[in-house]
Write a structure and sequence with these properties.
4 domains, globular, three-stranded mixed sheet, disordered N terminus, mainly alpha
Length: about 425
């Protein structure tokens, strides 16, 4: 849920107690229940607090909380989130709180918060941004600082700013992305940006397209392209970010007969749009949107298989099932000496003892399986898992606090088997 609770609220002892109790339910996927536990019930205790002392609640980027709408479950979650948002204008004591929402204009959202019950403030972007606007000046200040840090000289900085600021059009993610892109070779990449202006770098997707072209448009061998496709597809369709040890186990990720490292290729080439920490993930949802957009295969045909969901779901299914069928999943994963153990101790032990790939595979193998066409190999592996590893899998799910999901996962698997 995209809602941050201010520190002033957390400091309230009675509110802290309610939030602590509600946080135990964060594993739940029931958005309505989470809203009641973490928002509606805790804030009800502030009903007698004077208006001027009430906290301001912020919901940031409400439009982005719908994800990529890839699954019915994600669509239902987004609908539930919008439904709970209506409570702010329907529940009497919640009306007392000042609620600030940032979002792009979407019909579903504006219908929930019409101008009759709230104040709409339009922040200009795109063609609405004029020279001298506060958004442009902020971006200019930011870019100037970044360019100076890169070692650019005064005259070149001013020239770069005159070119870049108008094209940012008030979109800060454009500015941060182009700054990170230039950091690799400031003067060289700036010259390429200026030369490529005919393609229209005034949109975020056009900037992303140039970055992908600069990173993977030349000199990659076929096997390197397949490895990059496998990794980037997994980054999009995995249920949680996978670490390097998991990604390197994906089929086709290892590059035979080459010293190239597919993960290194992505980290180096897409430095401006991926995090630098040990777990590969994209900086911003908009880059995933770009990779899955209808125009992407037309612009980057050699990488078009990134959009092949069935292919990537199968890759992830094979990764999960191979992991569970291996010796990595075994009896008494946490080496517990007794079945009577403090819950907090179990949670801490599970985090440090159960390998991350085993944890991921136990939770999500069926999520990937149901999007994969059945075949004999997969069926045999699932059968082996059910006959030989079922109790070990259930033990791990219990240790992870996900025992309640076991029945649902088995139902999904049964539905998949019927398709064979």
């Amino acid at each position: 849920m995209p809602c941050g609770v201010p520190s002033r609220v957390v400091s309230h002892p009675s509110l802290r107690k309610h939030l602590a109790q509600g946080s135990r339910e964060l594993i739940s996927s029931d958005v309505d229940r989470l809203f009641k536990l973490l928002i509606e019930t805790p804030l009800s205790i502030l009903i007698n607090v004077p208006l001027k002392e009430l906290p301001v609640i912020v919901i940031d980027a409400l439009d982005e909380c719908r994800g990529l709408q890839r699954d019915l479950l994600e669509q239902n979650d987004h609908s539930a989130l919008l439904r709970t948002s209506q409570c702010w204008s329907q529940v009497d004591y919640l009306k007392r709180f000042k609620l600030v929402i940032t979002s792009q204009q979407e019909d579903r959202i504006t219908k929930i918060f019409p101008e009759s019950i709230c104040v709409h403030v339009n922040i200009p972007s795109g063609s609405d941004v004029k020279p001298g606007d506060s958004a442009s000046e902020d971006i200019r200040t930011f870019l100037k600082s970044r360019l100076e840090h890169m070692g650019m000289k005064g005259a070149l900085i001013e020239k770069a700013l005159d070119y870049l600021v108008p094209r940012a059009a008030g979109v800060f993610i454009w500015a941060t992305t182009v700054a990170s892109f230039l950091e690799q070779n400031p003067e060289g990449w700036l010259a390429i940006l200026e030369k490529d202006d005919g393609k229209g770098l005034t949109s975020l997707h056009s900037l992303y397209s140039m970055i992908v072209e600069a990173s993977f448009g030349h000199d990659l061998k076929v096997e390197e392209i397949r490895a990059v496709i496998s990794v980037m597809g997994a980054m999009i369709f995995a249920k949680e970010p996978l670490d390097d040890n998991a990604l390197i186990m994906l089929p086709e990720v290892k590059i035979p007969g080459s010293d190239a490292d597919s993960l290194g290729l992505i980290r180096k080439g897409l430095m401006s749009v991926v995090d630098s920490d040990p777990v590969l993930r994209f900086h911003h949802q908009s880059f995933e949107d770009f990779l899955l957009s209808p125009s992407f295969p037309q612009q980057h045909s050699e990488l078009s298989d990134i959009q092949g969901r069935v292919y990537h779901e199968r890759q992830l299914t094979v990764l999960c099932l191979r992991t569970l069928a291996s010796s990595k999943l075994h009896f008494n994963m946490c080496s517990l000496k007794s079945s009577i153990v403090n819950n907090l101790d179990i949670e801490a032990t599970a985090k440090t003892t159960i390998p991350s790939l085993v944890s991921y595979s136990c939770q999500y193998w069926a999520d990937h399986l149901v999007h994969t066409p059945p075949d004999k190999m997969l069926m045999e592996t699932v059968k082996f898992l059910m006959y030989e590893k079922l109790l070990f899998w259930m033990e791990v799910m219990s240790l992870l606090g996900k025992a309640y999901e076991v029945a649902l996962i088995l139902k999904r698997t049964l539905a998949w088997k019927v398709r064979l």
